[in-house]
Amino acid sequence: MGITSALVLYAVIWWMCFLIALPIKVQTQGDLGEIEPGTHAGAPEHHHTKRKAWIVTWVALVLWIVIAGIILSGWISLSDMNWFDRALPPL
Description:
The chain has about 90 residues and is mainly alpha-helical. The chain has helices at about 5-20, 30, 50-75, 85, and strands at about 25-30, 45. Helix content is about 60%, strand content about 5%. The longest helix is centred in the C-terminal third of the chain and has 25 residues, at about 50-75. The two termini are about 35 Å apart.
């Protein structure tokens, strides 16, 4: 795995974790009972984005180490993920 592949893998893992973490513990305007006129009650009031980004950074780092280790060790290779040849009957 090259440097670019490692960085792309980390970026994909980070964004996936970040998008999963975004709706966790969001306090909406409806929850707090302070709805601004012209906004939806489900609009976030306190979303703690910076804290979530730091947590996701460390979680993504741990996941990246595990996944990169599996890829570099050769335990799972690209040929193991070739499901098209397995699904077709032999000719």
